[in-house]
Write a structure and sequence with these properties.
single chain, about 200 residues, alpha/beta, UDP N-Acetylglucosamine Acyltransferase, domain 1, eight-stranded mixed β-sheet, 2 helices
């Protein structure tokens, strides 16, 4: 029976990864080497999406029992650039890029995270009423960062290398390297693994 399960899992992995590659090509995105996709992928690429090698994108609780609420959404608006580094893992995230989002190498993006470089709508009600543009600012997430389940990263934030953001946090201001941060809004809790926070 274990051979049947193994073959089924292999076939499932191949099917969803192949489907995602076709989806990427149709939208003008070069599929990278070693891309693994499990479950349907949400994709909108009016801007540029660059995905590094050996990236894994999980889109269903069937493949990640942490509880994924929806398939991963990768959105790059017109003129925007979304870059995902090598060996990064994503589970049911919503990444909406109107300006620039850069995700480093070896980053772990936990289930149901949200990364938005835009306010989506202006704060002033008259500007909303007349459909005027809203504020955007680039997001940079450094190498080896771990975003826990349900983390929200908002516009203009930079997260330094090797930092960890606790589950459920809302990050509104930049976080230094080697820092454990958490809360709403997120604040520094201390260094990671005895490393000096910076």
């Amino acid at each position: 029976m274990s051979h049947v399960v193994y073959i089924y899992n292999l076939a499932t992995k191949w099917y969803w990864s192949f489907r995602a590659r076709v989806q990427l090509r149709v939208r003008g995105v070069s599929p990278p080497r070693g891309l693994v996709v499990l479950g349907p992928l949400g994709l909108s690429a009016r801007g540029q999406i660059v995905i590094g090698e050996n990236v894994t994108i999980v889109n269903s609780s069937r493949f990640n029992r942490a509880g994924i609420n929806h398939p991963t959404q990768l959105v790059a608006g017109e003129g925007a650039t979304l870059t995902i580094g090598d060996n990064t893992g994503i589970s049911g995230a919503a990444i909406f890029c109107s300006n620039s989002i850069t995700i480093g190498n070896h980053v772990l993006i936990g289930a149901n995270c949200r990364i938005y470089d835009t306010d989506f709508h202006p704060i002033d009600f008259m500007e909303r009423r007349y459909g005027r543009p809203c504020n955007t600012a680039p997001i940079i997430i450094g190498d080896d960062v771990w975003l826990g389940e349900g983390v929200t990263i908002l516009k203009g934030v930079r997260i330094g290398a090797r930092s960890v953001i606790a589950a459920g946090s809302v990050v509104t201001k930049s976080v230094g390297s080697d820092t454990l941060a958490g809360g709403v809004p997120a604040r520094s809790i201390g260094p990671v693994n005895g490393r000096r926070a910076g």
